Amino acid sequence: MIDEEHGRRILRRAFVDAGFQIEEDFPFPIAGTVIQLDGYDPARRVGYEYVTTSAGDRDQIDGRVVEELDRLNEDLLAHILMVDEQYISTSEELIFACNAYLVALDARNGVDPRSVERSFGE
User: What are phi and psi of 37, to 5 degrees?
Assistant: First the structure.
């Protein structure tokens, strides 16, 4: 399992390398509450959250929040990658999941797939 700090570092580097202006610990109002996204580019409405128990993420990200985030993603109002530490065992798996997500983003979000097809180091 990858700890919060390491996971955040990997995700931040991938998103920054893909051209996003990431603000860390971004307050994101959703489902009647405000959660702290690990990273978010407010101008392009793209970000990520690495969900870990140690950071208390499970306390703030409940079913209502996940449902609303899914709706925002589906309606193309925001693009938030959610990765749960329980499903990622290695840095390589996290890098792979992040790369796949970035490549899948629509071109109108300004992501050049060629910029994310490589492996991001730690």
Answer: -75, 140
